[in-house]
Amino acid sequence: MAEVNVQQSVKEVLAKQLSIDVNTIKIDSRLAEDLNLDSFGAVEAAFALEEKFELKISDDAIYTAKTVEDIVKYISGQLSQKS
Amino acid sequence: MQKRRVVITGLGVVACNGIGKDKFWQANVDGVSGIDRITSFDIEGFASQIAGQIKDFDPALYMPAAIVGRVDRFVHLGVAAAQMAIDDSRLDLANEDKTRIGVVIGSGLGGSIFHEEQMLVAYEKGAHRLTPLCVPRITPNAVSGQIAIRYGLLGPNMVISTACASGSHGIGEAYRKMQYGDMDICVTGGVEATLSRFNFGGYDALRVLSKRNQAPKEASRPFDKGRDGFVLSEGAGLVILEELNHALKRNATIYAELIGYASNSGAHHMVMPDPNGLDAMRGMSDAIKDANLKPEDIDYINAHATSTTANDKAETKAIKEVFGKRAYEVPISATKSMIGHTIGAAGGIEAVVCSLAIKNQFIPPTINYTDKDPECDLDYVPNKGRNVKIENVLSNSFGFGNCNACLVFSKLKG
């Protein structure tokens, strides 16, 4: 999957998790500071991403991601390893 | 020590026959039932297929969307009722000492709908798919916690769970705390979300629910000879309790004064009431005594009256024992005939009814009363409400496990 599609999917999952408009989420949005995503929300968003991309996201990855871009890079990396 | 006086200055209610105190009260005055066929989950296989489901409720009107998705339905109902009660009280929370404001809520089941969802996740998708929000969403005190967080209320905070009496126990225990000075204001009452396949199924398996599926609005018929069980409902009824002088100082609207409370156990059976109604009798007598009244001073009884054969008979017997000849004169009504049985919310919703009955000097009816049961032969205000002079009201709540709570409300006296 091209990184641009991953980016859109990540934004959509976060928007749903946070009950906010997808257009307010930017690639450089900071998860905690800009989007108010707390650790519970991060875990639930990770579940949704795991189902969407059929992969496993480690707890470490969940807690170290600081921006939307960090999540997109992690998922793209996992996907390229799979293929 | 002189106990402090406690009044009711705000009402919030979410019920199947009306959301908000005005719509809810009008439905009670008009004898409107909120019972219908269940649509919120698959009812395949159950003997009872009707409930008091709240169909036009949007939690997003009462809390941020981000919270809506993170709490169980019982918290949706509770936070909505709390918002309504606080608005109705016209309390200016920004200028109150929040360490003196508590939240004491009754709930029999807590976040059991979400519990059920996550059980399925654990078994079907695997343990690693359980959300970290499991515990904070399921725990019964999620509702008192969320209300406190939302408004920054720093006083005593707890949930009391005594099945069908939870709401009255919540109000009664909050009342005691306020009488003794533990807090000046309390958001209190009952909250319950009962309608999911597992929850509903549990009550259906107990064989206590009405099977009048073809005529849902006629199914809850307390004291009527044809009653065949209760109708399970969801809802929330919260009141603002306020220390009298605090309320007078800010010119608050005072619906009623809470003047008596008693709680006890029948120690008889987990589901059946004591057939002689001894515990119910003691509860009513003790609450009336606590209010410094005599049975003849009670002008209206809001009965527990679930519409089961055993409860309504035992309660009638207990009323006769406590009230003697007066039992045949005092109007008694069963508002569960319209609302169904909201379990832990019932005492809270009925406290809203009693407050409005005193405010409006009007007794809502027991609807669906058509055939007299020789063992239930009192004045149940059948089918049509009544304008009467009301000074003092007794509200009964009798829970599974014989957990009982009785409250006495009064028109504010000088």
Layout of secondary structure:
The complex is a heterodimer of chains A (83) and B (414).
Chain A: H1 3-18, H2 39-53, H3 59-64, H4 68-82
Helix pairs in contact in A: 1-2, 1-4
Chain B: E1 6-15, E2 18-19, H1 21-30, E3 36-37, E4 50-51, H2 65-68, H3 73-89, E5 101-106, H4 112-124, H5 134-138, H6 142-151, E6 157-160, H7 166-179, E7 185-192, H8 197-205, E8 235-243, H9 244-249, E9 256-265, H10 278-290, E10 300-302, H11 309-323, E11 332-333, H12 336-339, H13 346-360, E12 362-363, E13 386-387, E14 392-399, E15 403-410
Parallel strand pairs in B: 5-6, 5-7, 10-11, 10-14
Antiparallel strand pairs in B: 1-2, 1-8, 1-9, 3-4, 7-8, 9-15, 12-13, 14-15
Helix pairs in contact in B: 3-6, 7-13, 10-11
Question: What features would you describe in this structure?
Answer:
The complex is a heterodimer of chains A (83) and B (414). Chain A is mainly alpha-helical. Chain A is built from four helices and no strands. Chain A has a single domain (3-82), classed as Non-ribosomal Peptide Synthetase Peptidyl Carrier Protein, Chain A. The model of chain A has no long low-confidence stretch (mean pLDDT 91). Chain A has helices at 3-18, 39-53, 59-64, 68-82. With 414 residues, chain B is α/β, with parallel strands linked by helices. Chain B has a single domain (7-414), classed as Peroxisomal Thiolase, Chain A, domain 1 (3-Layer(aba) Sandwich), CATH 3.40.47. Chain B contains 13 helices and 15 strands. Chain B has helices at 21-30, 65-68, 73-89, 112-124, 134-138, 142-151, 166-179, 197-205, 244-249, 278-290, 309-323, 336-339, 346-360, and strands spanning 6-15, 18-19, 36-37, 50-51, 101-106, 157-160, 185-192, 235-243, 256-265, 300-302, 332-333, 362-363, 386-387, 392-399, 403-410. In chain B, the strands form three sheets. In chain B, strands 1, 2, 5, 6, 7, 8, 9, 10, 11, 14 and 15 form an eleven-stranded mixed β-sheet that branches.
